[in-house]
Amino acid sequence: MILLAPSILSADFGNLNKDIEMINQSEADWFHVDIMDGVFVPNISFGFPILEALNKKASKFKDVHLMIAHADEYIQTFKKLGADSLTVHYEACLHLNRTIQAIKSEGLKAGVALNPHSNIHLLDDIIEELDLVLIMSVNPGFGGQKFIENTYKKIANTKDLIIQKNSSARIQVDGGVNINNIKKLADTGADVLVAGSAIFNSENPLETIKSFKSLAV
């Protein structure tokens, strides 16, 4: 079954409670939470208070994507504020194995994200330890970007590596996911799809989520 994770980065922050409740009531599976620090990526999103507020209202799995430097320093805090999984960037972690071990020691699911230019084989030696491999299908930092077509090949290569290494990691795709490519992404091997503006900018987000889930089977 394909999981759908709406990204609250695209939600209406003037009425966040309404959008959180919409996701709670929808057929979506996870909340996707993008944390940006203005250092690793050229943008700043939101910090601990928003995640804490989300945790009080959200009734579904909270999938936190850390686009930050020095992620190790904040793992325990993210755990306390309600994260269920933490995904860090390969490009931002000097000691990746240690970071993954630290995440798992807190009882969280652990993932690694790869920027579009990063080859999946960078994860050869760690993919067996991962719960999630996040393939960025746009350059991280801003929503609403155009989907990078090479993503399909990268998904297929990731699936091959997971099988080769007997890993249980799920493949997640984030960036430019919409109603036109969601079926092909699922058919290529994606397990979790993140969608932001395609959901929250639609006329009826609940129906859009329903359509996404019906296509990604």
UniProtKB/TrEMBL annotation:
Q: Where does substrate bind?
A: 7, 65, 141-144, 174-176, 196-197
Catalytic activity of the protein:
D-ribulose 5-phosphate = D-xylulose 5-phosphate
**GO: which molecular function terms?**
D-ribulose-phosphate 3-epimerase activity; metal ion binding
Q: Name one GO cellular component term.
A: cytoplasm
Q: Which residues form the active site?
A: 34 (proton acceptor), 174 (proton donor)
Report the cofactor remark.
Binds 1 divalent metal cation per subunit.
What family is it from? Belongs to the ribulose-phosphate 3-epimerase family.
Q: What does this protein do?
A: Catalyzes the reversible epimerization of D-ribulose 5-phosphate to D-xylulose 5-phosphate.
Protein name as catalogued: Ribulose-phosphate 3-epimerase
Which species expresses this protein natively?
A: Apibacter muscae
Q: Which gene encodes it?
A: rpe
